[in-house]
Amino acid sequence: MRSQYVEITSNDNKYSRNRFSSIRRNTKFGIPQGSTLGPLLFLLYINDLPQHITNGDIVLFADDTNILVTDKDKSILQDKIKRIMIQLESWFSKNNMIINNDKTKAMLFQLKKPHDISGPDIIFNNIKIKYTSQFRFLGINITQNLKWSVHIQSLCSKLNKVCYIIKSLKDEVSLHILRNIYFAKFQSLVSYGLIFWGGENESIKVFKIQKRMLRFMKGVNNRVSCRPLFKELKILTITSLYIIEVLCYFKRYNIYTTRNTDLYEYNTRRKDDLHVQQCNTSVFKKSVINVGIKLYNILPLEVKKSKGCNEFKHKLKLFLFDRPFYTLNEFLQQGHEEA
């Protein structure tokens, strides 16, 4: 059995230092903090939680637990939440666990501009869970209206720091090293979560920083066009990276919906294309499904016929390296012209 105690160090002044230790107690539950097996053992410990939760979808990642509850009727939504809270209280009690109330938040997702961020009452162990309008989830800033301006703003702040590093080193190191720094520090940040926010109009802010970065790397002024620089450095534009993320997601998970031939028998040149669904909301218009269908239909036949995900991604990259697209409309327009 493992014993544990708490130690506190106190500095009364610059000459005196006191150390206080609590009484040693044997621990019957839990694992040492920072241990190698800690995360795995914790996952095994909470692995049965989803089986005890009904009326909601639960997402577990390490020690981060999220529950999604949906319904069009607010009264039914309130009833579902109440039942889930009862189930959670029972599970936590049986497993001798508690939640961190300060870090536990609720969010009411609304497509329209919200007048109030609050929603149905959420009571856990007689404590009311507070609502928030935005929250950082696994490095992604999520807002209740599913807009990405907050995340893009946060990302731009990080990218500007990388830009400063490149500017400071451009006269000290080779272009090869600058390019490696770009992929390690800049593109890695941009690629994370790009599939969510890449279709937003505000992504132009990230693209402007990317162009400034390329000009620093090549040591040219801001009047020089970046299109030849993208091709020379073999760097993909933000738009091209987004296209790869969306289409590889389509290919990897076989998200192929209805084709035009399934709906009508007319012999047109677009008969084998995926059917573009009608969009009633801006959220669905920018969704991975809708954007992915349009992008896939424009792809050259050689890329579409790729056998596996790796071959598909390789051919798609080669296609985009020679065509530095600045916007999605530019990609779609060129595809229609070539077709």
UniProtKB/TrEMBL annotation:
Pfam families assigned to the protein according to its UniProt record, in alphabetical order: RVT_1
Transmembrane spans: none
A biological process from GO: DNA biosynthetic process
Annotated InterPro entries: DNA/RNA_pol_sf (IPR043502), RT_dom (IPR000477)
Record-annotated Reverse transcriptase domain positions: 1-142
Domain of life: Eukaryota
Name of the protein this chain belongs to: Reverse transcriptase domain-containing protein
Taxonomic source organism: Cryptotermes secundus
